[in-house]
Amino acid sequence: MRPRSLRRYLTVCLLVPLLGLLSIDAVLTYHRARQSADAAFDRSLFTSNKAMVEGISIQNGQIVVDIPYLALEMFESNAAGRVYYRVVEEGGAELTGYKDLPLPRRRDQAYYKPLFYDADYQGDTIRIAATRQRVHDVATAQTRTVWVLTGETPESRRELARQILIGAIIQDLLLVALSLGIVLIAVSVGLRPLRRLSNKVKDKDADDLQPLDATELPSELKPLVEAMNQYIARIERILNDRGRFFADAAHQLKTPLAVLQAKVELALREDDLPTVKRQMAETLDTVRHASRGVKQLLSLSRLAPDHFLVVTYSDVDLTAVARDVALDWAPVARRSGVDLGFEGGEPARLSGRPELLQELVGNLIDNAIRYAGPGRMVTVRSMPVDGHARLQVIDNGPGIPEEERDKVFRRFYRISGTQVEGSGLGLGIVHEIARLHDALIALSHTPGGGLTVTVDFPVERVAPSSS
């Protein structure tokens, strides 16, 4: 499909209503033209009536009609149609003219005042002017009444109306053409800033992620530029996250790969089978550590704010999720010498995604087991509190100094002086999952020593936080 032209679209959108208005104006103009033509020709008929009245007199007791030259001249001027006239005495004899020319239906018309009406005559519709006139005989003091009728066919009137209509249509078409030309010129001039913006975007280098300058653009284009700048900023954040992911992956894998290489080289030099097995077991632990770090990196990258993650939320019982995850981690806790327990009987419902909540609880338990150390206790607790679903993971280990609690959610951050094996990504994953669920995380001191991690989830989410 050809791309739609804005200029062509505007032309059609303007031309169709303008042509509609032109049609309406043509009808109204023709109606006015007919009224004007009727008024002009009615005056002509009335003038003919007056001229004929002036030629009517009483001589020797008889009404005499002498049609003056002025009336004849006006009859001759209507070359396009036919003209009729009639003079008849009221209630009396025909005097002159066309005897079957119809009189008006009402005969009580005032004297000397013309009456105009349309009538069917000889298969055509004619316009008639009728005047009721008194004729006086001074010698005998006699007064008699006559009707003077003049009529004409409508050809001249129609021709005049047609000429007026054609002139008006030509004028309107010229105005429509000029209007369209002005609009198209205005559109062309108005689109120049958009073309400049288009060229500016097209000329940007592939690695140029600087925002576009909207200071010289019309106000109507500023929302578009702002949206493009927001999109550019988002692309920049995504590229930065991608670069950070590659850097993090290199950082996470560099040491394990170096250790793997060294252990494999040592194993290849050994001839003693038990020593080789021990070194291969250590190598396997290193591989597991590296694999876990890669999985955490991928999970953290997937949960990043600018990642296009579509999260479908459903009704979840946080208590049931926490209980199941605690049971899954119980064997790991036993191997580490940690007493892992669970508290919570009342359902704590929220709108969330079960697999992400399982990952959140699992990372909190893993972090607590690692940093609490052997011989310690870790308790997972879930409950509804004040309209929230609350999750707590409590340990009685060494805890985290207060000044470092805001830093532990950073990637690869490790508390100084710790000897615990880990990647520093677990709490970062917890933070991102909590963000997707609009949850609040708080780190606090456990009474008697240790760390308490509290995550409060809203029961109803107003809108998804995922990007």
Automatic annotation (TrEMBL):
<dbReference type="InterPro" id="IPR005467">
    <property type="entry name" value="His_kinase_dom"/>
</dbReference>
<dbReference type="InterPro" id="IPR003660">
    <property type="entry name" value="HAMP_dom"/>
</dbReference>
<feature type="domain" description="Histidine kinase">
    <location>
        <begin position="248"/>
        <end position="461"/>
    </location>
</feature>
<dbReference type="Pfam" id="PF08521">
    <property type="entry name" value="2CSK_N"/>
</dbReference>
<keyword id="KW-0808">Transferase</keyword>
<dbReference type="InterPro" id="IPR003661">
    <property type="entry name" value="HisK_dim/P_dom"/>
</dbReference>
<keyword id="KW-0597">Phosphoprotein</keyword>
<keyword id="KW-1133">Transmembrane helix</keyword>
<dbReference type="InterPro" id="IPR036097">
    <property type="entry name" value="HisK_dim/P_sf"/>
</dbReference>
<feature type="transmembrane region" description="Helical">
    <location>
        <begin position="164"/>
        <end position="191"/>
    </location>
</feature>
<protein>
    <recommendedName>
        <fullName>histidine kinase</fullName>
        <ecNumber>2.7.13.3</ecNumber>
    </recommendedName>
</protein>
<dbReference type="GO" id="GO:0016301">
    <property type="term" value="F:kinase activity"/>
</dbReference>
<dbReference type="InterPro" id="IPR003594">
    <property type="entry name" value="HATPase_dom"/>
</dbReference>
<keyword id="KW-0418">Kinase</keyword>
<keyword id="KW-0902">Two-component regulatory system</keyword>
<dbReference type="InterPro" id="IPR036890">
    <property type="entry name" value="HATPase_C_sf"/>
</dbReference>
<dbReference type="InterPro" id="IPR004358">
    <property type="entry name" value="Sig_transdc_His_kin-like_C"/>
</dbReference>
<dbReference type="InterPro" id="IPR013727">
    <property type="entry name" value="2CSK_N"/>
</dbReference>
<dbReference type="InterPro" id="IPR050428">
    <property type="entry name" value="TCS_sensor_his_kinase"/>
</dbReference>
<keyword id="KW-0812">Transmembrane</keyword>
<dbReference type="Pfam" id="PF00512">
    <property type="entry name" value="HisKA"/>
</dbReference>
<feature type="domain" description="HAMP">
    <location>
        <begin position="188"/>
        <end position="240"/>
    </location>
</feature>
<dbReference type="Pfam" id="PF02518">
    <property type="entry name" value="HATPase_c"/>
</dbReference>
<keyword id="KW-0472">Membrane</keyword>
